[in-house]
Amino acid sequence: MTPAKRMEQRLKRLQEHLKRENPVLVEAVNQYRELDAVAQKLGLLHGGESYATQISWWPMISVLGTFSAGKSSFINTFLDMDLQRTGNQAVDDRFTVITFSPDNQVRTLPGLALDGDPRFPFYQISEDIEHVSKGEGAKIDSYLQMKVAPSEKLRGKILIDSPGFDADEQRKATLRITDHIIELSDLVMVFFDARHPEPGAMQDTLEHLVKGAMRRNDSSKFLFILNQIDTSAREDNLEDIVSAWQKALVQQGLSAGSFHILFNDKLAVPVANENVWARYVAKRDADYQRIMARVNGVNIERVYRIVGAMESQANAIEQQAVPRIREALQRWRKQVLAADALVFGLLAVALVAMSIEFGYWEGLLFNPPWLAAFAGNLWATIGVLAVIAGLALGLHYWIRQRLAKRIAATLSKSETYGNLSAAFLKSTPFWRSIFQSSPAGWGGRTRRRLDTIRHATDRFVQHLNDRFTSPSGENQKPKSA
Length: 481
Fold this sequence. Notes:
Elements: H1 3-21, H2 26-42, E1 60-65, H3 71-79, E2 95-100, E3 107-110, H4 112-115, H5 125-132, E4 144-149, E5 158-161, H6 172-184, E6 187-193, H7 203-214, E7 222-227, H8 238-251, E8 258-262, H9 274-296, H10 298-357, E9 361-362, E10 365-366, H11 372-375, H12 378-408, H13 420-426, H14 444-468
Parallel strand pairs: 1-5, 1-6, 2-4, 6-7, 7-8
Antiparallel strand pairs: 2-5, 3-4, 9-10
Helix pairs in contact: 2-10, 2-14, 5-6, 10-12, 10-14, 12-13
């Protein structure tokens, strides 16, 4: 089966599942197919790729952070069951994908269950791991596992618990999975341990997670949580600790994302001063309610995010990919013309010098002894000129091919909208003139296809708005997402 057919089967299975889980998104898959066709025509995607696989079609909540930050304890409290092992040291070195179990059983499945199932956002992640860390792709079970649990809070969601994060010590494969999780998640909760009051000690974590959030256009999905803050109640310096951590985030350049505090009632030891403890509890409860509001809202946010991602990709193709390919083609054209002028100019000078050396000139008249042999033979003259033209064209195409490959090597192969390098090379085959400024596959018809996709996005958004709001003020019962 070709990669294109495998992808089509995967999209069909996705639509079948959405018909049961979220019918409003079924038509969105067709629009993603249309977007894929545009990208494949431009060369940004190949036949076995789809933008639909770059997002998670199920709400995804990831819990990241440092060792001993209370990630697993938070998950157990949220699910109201002792699902994840807890401890002050690293107790699990794998990413755990937690999903709903309909049969009241808790099971642990290997990483292959995620890598081989196209319904999950880690489908074929082993290939990505292999690319960044040779030989590690076959060890997928060392990086991922799946747990299924009978908690209603998991119904319709995917929850991810990460191993303790340490950017200096983790392998490239682990960082690749972390980036993949962040990319697909609707909500990213980053936990820090308040018992380690010096934020500078977590510099590597801040570098990878916080600066990563800053570079994203969806940084609002990050919640930064200072956990186990109850340890500061005896000194009553809650505000000082929170301020220090907020300052650390600001120093990393983060201006978006929420900052919250938490602690576990089962593990906390109240202080004697009831007023201080009441203030800590009130702050914790308020922040926990805000966190839960975000958690409960991911189902609706996910639908809007999927539809919005479709329009973002359409805009990125027209406003980013096409201009960058045009710029690369312009650069290529200038380099080819300059190289042609230089090479053919040098050849011309060399030939003139050789003809002078051999005495082929009589003053300003070029009169080599073999010229008379062609004077009365038209076909011989045509043949010689054809050979010369063929050699010149061959040299020209060799120059343009070499320069195209050199420029392609400078272009990204992993932009969010696709492979810019491959798209550029698709616009530089021998049958395309170097004076064609538009990329291959781009034109008025392609632009209209993108406009149609954007109009479809607007219709989706209006349909979603009708489910949750009524601008006219008419009474309308809200519908679930």
